[in-house]
TrEMBL record:
Keywords: Decarboxylase, Lyase, Magnesium, Metal-binding, Thiamine pyrophosphate. CDD domains: TPP_PYR_PDC_IPDC_like (cd07038). Transmembrane segments: none annotated. Residues 407-554 form the Thiamine pyrophosphate enzyme TPP-binding domain. Pfam families: TPP_enzyme_C, TPP_enzyme_M, TPP_enzyme_N. This is Thiamine pyrophosphate-binding protein. The lineage of its organism: Bacteria, Pseudomonadati, Bacteroidota, Cytophagia, Cytophagales. The keyword tRNA processing does not apply. It comes from Fontibacter flavus.
Length: 582
C-alpha cells in the first residue's frame, strides 16, 4: 500500500516550499483533512477563531516566509475566507487556500436527487465561481490518481505568479493513496533567461518574439541611462516590486554606482533598511515630509523602480496625473520614460542592463550624501499620549529584532510611515486592498518568523473586526504586542468624509456612523486569555505610561501584550495637518 495519501502529499509539497504552519478553522467537510495533518504530517496546525482571521494570518505568514496556507470547509468557510484571498491577490501575496468539500457521493446526490447538503449553496461549482477572480489557479480534486499533478500545477502557479491559488478536495479523497512526491517544485520564470533570448534574437532567422523582448530591454536601459547621465539631480523612488521579486541586492548595487537619494513609496516602505545614508523618507502625496520634498522638488529626473501606479501616490494632492508621478516608471513589466514606452521588460533584467551600461560607459555621481533631518522634539513624560508622541517614543524603542505590522488608516498614514525601520522588510501593511482589521491576524501569522517580535499597530475600529486573533496568539504562545490606537472613532473615515472635527478648537460633531462603542481592553485580554500568565494588558494615558509599558514588554519577552493607547478623539498624526487645514 502506498504510504502517501492526498493530504500528506499536499503537506509534503507545502513543507518543501517553506510552509511549516497551516492556519485553519475546523468544519465537518474538513475535519478528516485536519486530523491527517495532525497525526500523519509534521505541519503545525494553527487553529483560528474564524476563517477571515485564518486567511489574514496566512497572508502575514506568506509575507515573511514567501508562501502561506489556510484550510477551511466549503460554503460558510470558503465564502468567509474570500476577502482575505482577494486582498492577497491584489497585493501579490502567494497563499494556498485549501477547501474541504462534499464527497463525490454527496455531490451526485445533489445533482441527481435534488438533495441540499448543509454549508452548500446547491449543485454546481460555487467555489470555482467566486474564487476565479482572485486566484491564478483553481484545482478541484475528486480523484486521488490525478491529485499529485493537480497539486503540483496549482503550487507551481502560486509560487511563479506570487498570487493565491485554491485547491478544493472532496472529503472522500483525503485518505486515498496517491503517488509519492517526485523532485522539488520551483517557480517558472515569466521569460526565458535574457542570455537565451539574445541568442534566439541573433539567430538566422531571428526569433521575432525574442528579438522584441531584447529590443525593448535594451531600448529601455539605454533611455534610462541617457536620462540619468544628463540629470543634474536624479532621485530614486522604490516600490513593492523590489521586495516581491527579491531585488534588494540589485537595487543596492545600482545605488552604490549612482549615489543618489532614494525615497520609498507607501507600498515599498522599509524594503531597504532606512538607516541607509541615501534614504530620504516616504514620497506619498500629502504625507511627504518637508525634508523629503526638498529633494523631490529639486530633482529633474525622478526614477520609479517597482512603484505601483495607485491613487495613494497622490493622496491629498490636487493633480490630474493620478498615481504615476515619476519621470521614469519601471513596474509591471513595463518601462515608461517620458513619451517612450517599452513592454515585456522585467525589473530584474532592467536593473542588470542598467548596471552593465554604467559599468561599460561609466557614470559620475552628482549628489553629496544628504544630511539627516532634524529629529522632532521628544514629548515630555507628563504629556498626555498623542499619535505623534506614541510614534516618537516607539521610534526609540524598536530595533532590528522587531517586525511592525500596521493596519490601514491613521495607524499607517503619518503613523507607522514615520517610523525609521532598520530591518529589511521590517514593516508589513496591506495598503492597497486596505481591509481594516487585517493587521491583527496578519501579525499572528508574521510572528512565526524566527528571532523576531511582532508589534501590531491598529486602530480601535479596525481592531474590533478581528480582535479574536489575540486569543490565538495567547494559545500559541506568541510574543506579539498589539497596540490599539484607541481614539474612539473611525478616524480615517471621518477624515475622508469631513475633517472639520479635527480643525483647531473645533467642536464639530463626528458623523454618528464613525463613533465607536468603547471597550475595556485590559478586561478583554483577561477574557481572551482566560487570565493566562502569558496574556498581559495595559492602559497608556501619558507618555510616561508608554515608557513604563515598553519596559515591561522588554522584561516579558515571551508574553502576548494588548496595549490600549488612550487617545483624545480629536487627536491625529501631524502629517495630516495639510489635509485637515486645506
Amino acid at each position: 500500500m502506498a504510504s502517501t495519501n492526498v493530504v500528506t502529499y499536499l503537506s509534503t509539497r507545502l513543507q518543501q516550499l517553506g510552509v511549516n504552519h497551516l492556519f485553519s478553522v475546523p468544519g465537518d467537510y474538513t475535519s478528516d483533512l485536519l486530523e491527517i495533518v495532525d497525526t500523519q504530517t509534521s505541519l503545525t496546525r494553527i487553529g483560528n477563531c474564524n476563517e477571515l482571521n485564518a486567511g489574514y494570518a496566512a497572508d502575514g505568514y506568506a509575507r515573511i516566509h514567501g508562501l502561506g496556507a489556510v484550510a477551511v470547509t466549503t460554503g460558510v468557510g470558503s465564502f468567509s475566507l474570500l476577502n482575505a484571498i482577494g486582498g492577497a491577490f491584489v497585493e501579490d501575496i502567494p497563499i494556498v487556500a485549501i477547501i474541504g468539500t462534499l464527497s463525490n457521493t454527496k455531490s451526485l446526490d445533489e445533482i441527481n436527487g435534488a438533495e441540499l447538503y448543509h454549508h452548500n449553496v446547491g449543485s454546481g461549482d460555487a467555489n470555482i465561481q467566486i474564487y476565479k477572480p482572485v486566484t491564478v489557479a483553481f484545482e478541484k480534486i475528486s480523484n486521488p490518481i490525478n491529485a499529485p499533478a493537480q497539486i503540483d500545477s496549482a503550487l507551481t502557479t502560486c509560487i511563479s505568479q506570487k498570487k493565491p491559488v485554491a485547491i478544493e478536495i472532496t472529503e472522500d479523497c483525503y485518505y486515498m493513496p496517491c503517488a509519492d512526491p517526485v523532485g522539488i517544485l520551483s517557480p517558472i520564470p515569466s521569460y526565458e533567461p535574457i542570455a537565451t533570448l539574445r541568442e534566439m534574437a541573433a539567430a538566422t532567422p531571428p526569433n521575432k518574439y525574442a528579438k522584441q523582448i531584447v529590443t525593448a530591454l535594451d531600448g529601455a536601459a539605454q533611455s534610462i541611462y541617457k536620462k540619468l547621465s544628463a540629470s543634474k539631480a536624479p532621485v530614486l523612488w522604490i516600490g513593492k516590486e523590489i521586495q516581491t521579486y527579491s531585488l534588494q541586492d540589485k537595487f543596492l548595487a545600482l545605488l552604490d554606482k549612482i549615489k543618489a537619494p532614494f525615497a520609498n513609496s507607501l507600498l515599498g516602505k522599509a524594503i531597504i533598511p532606512e538607516d541607509n545614508p541615501w534614504f530620504i523618507g516616504l514620497h506619498d502625496g500629502v504625507f511627504t515630509s518637508a525634508y523629503t520634498n526638498q529633494f523631490i522638488q529639486k530633482s529633474d529626473c525622478l526614477i520609479g523602480l517597482g512603484v505601483w501606479n495607485t491613487d495613494l501616490n497622490q493622496f491629498g494632492v490636487n493633480s490630474s496625473n493620478l498615481g504615476m508621478i515619476s519621470d521614469i516608471d519601471v513596474s509591471r513589466s513595463m518601462v515608461k520614460a517620458g513619451n517612450e514606452l517599452y513592454v515585456q521588460v522585467s525589473l530584474s533584467d532592467l536593473l542588470d542592463a542598467l548596471l552593465a551600461l554604467i559599468e561599460k560607459y561609466g557614470y559620475r555621481p552628482v549628489w553629496s550624501p544628504p544630511s539627516a533631518p532634524t529629529p522632532p522634539t521628544p514629548p515630555k513624560v507628563s504629556d498626555p499620549i498623542t499619535y505623534d508622541g506614541f510614534y516618537q517614543v516607539l521610534d526609540t524603542f524598536i530595533t532590528a529584532e522587531h517586525l511592525i505590522v500596521a493596519d490601514i488608516g491613521l495607524s499607517t498614514f503619518g503613523g507607522t510611515s514615520s517610523l525609521k525601520i532598520t530591518r529589511p522588510n521590517g514593516i508589513q501593511a496591506q495598503n492597497i486592498w486596505a481591509s481594516i482589521g487585517w493587521s491583527v491576524p496578519a501579525g499572528l501569522g508574521a510572528s512565526f518568523g524566527e528571532g523576531t517580535r511582532t508589534l501590531v499597530i491598529v486602530g480601535d475600529g479596525a481592531f474590533k473586526l478581528t480582535c479574536q486573533a489575540v486569543s490565538t496568539m495567547v494559545m500559541e504562545k506568541r510574543n506579539t504586542v498589539v497596540f490599539v490606537m484607541n481614539n474612539k472613532v473611525y478616524g480615517v473615515e471621518q477624515m475622508l468624509l469631513d475633517p472639520a472635527p479635527y480643525k483647531p478648537g473645533s467642536t464639530a460633531p463626528f458623523e454618528d456612523a464613525n463613533v465607536l462603542q468603547q471597550w475595556d481592553y485590559v478586561s478583554l485580554m483577561n477574557a481572551f486569555s482566560n487570565n493566562a500568565s502569558n496574556g498581559l494588558a495595559a492602559n497608556v494615558n501619558t507618555v510616561q505610561d508608554l515608557h513604563n509599558v515598553l519596559e515591561t514588554i522588554n522584561l516579558n519577552p515571551d508574553a502576548t501584550f494588548l496595549v490600549n493607547i488612550n487617545l483624545n478623539e480629536r487627536d491625529y498624526p501631524s502629517a495630516w495637518s495639510q489635509f485637515v487645514n486645506k
